[in-house]
Amino acid sequence: MIRVEKVSKEFALEAGNFTALRETDVTIGKGEFIAVMGPSGSGKSTLLQILGGLDLPTSGSVEIDGVRLERLDEKGRTLFRRTKVGFVFQNYQLLPMMTVAENIALALAANRAPKAEIDRTVARLIREVNLEGKASSYPSQLSGGQQQRVAIARALAMKPALILADEPTGNLDRQNGEDILKLLSRLNKEEGITVVMVTHDRHAAETADRIITLRDGAVVEDAMEGAGRK
Ligand code: ADP
Ligand code: MG
What we know:
Elements: E1 2-13, E2 16-28, E3 33-37, H1 44-51, E4 59-64, E5 67-68, H2 74-84, E6 85-89, H3 100-110, H4 115-128, H5 144-156, E7 162-166, H6 174-191, E8 194-198, H7 202-205, E9 210-215, E10 218-224
Parallel strand pairs: 3-8, 3-9, 6-7, 7-8
Antiparallel strand pairs: 1-2, 1-4, 4-5, 9-10
Organism: Paenibacillus antri
Protein name: ABC transporter ATP-binding protein
GO molecular function: ATP binding; ATP hydrolysis activity; transmembrane transporter activity
């Protein structure tokens, strides 16, 4: 599903180049639930951005679901992002002036789906993330946990094969974080969606089947978890 080969990422800074990923290799199978751990600044978010086509590697190759990302042009990458991956971020990144239903419908509307189909899909997703009755609410009227569930529903709208989540429980208290982990786990186990989740929380990481640890832009550990949290 995901093959990262010798991927390096350098950022040009005034003081010179900074290497965020150094010749990193990662292979992830379809249907895996992966946690990416490592200290702050070790390259976790950079790796996720590259997997999602939000950024390009300086060198190396990234293949997702048969698509070589570094060979796509800007338009191809936009289409890839919109149709193949769902992103979930620590700070939710919902649009504040739009309702829950409108936030979830964004990608479908951008792809010009018919209105009846959009309404049906949005209603299904709202049920799926347990937010019945909140369709017309605005993000500011919701708790953090509820906002993150809207973000997950939005990520699911295009039926992605892959969910990329960067510290999805980072802003949540224990109980709300637990609910988000259970939701991601269910989507992985029941719908077969591959999940790659960055977290610095060991407890959260144990939800995953496998934990990849980065340090200074390189994989230093790659370990299968036990039964995970089912
Ligand atoms: P993590 O998510 O593991 O905390 P990041 O992937 O965000 O780490 O960052 C890795 C390193 O790359 C950090 O030292 C960070 O400062 C640097 N970095 C990330 N993005 C940029 C950027 N756009 N420009 C310059 N440096 C960056
Ligand atoms: Mg990060």
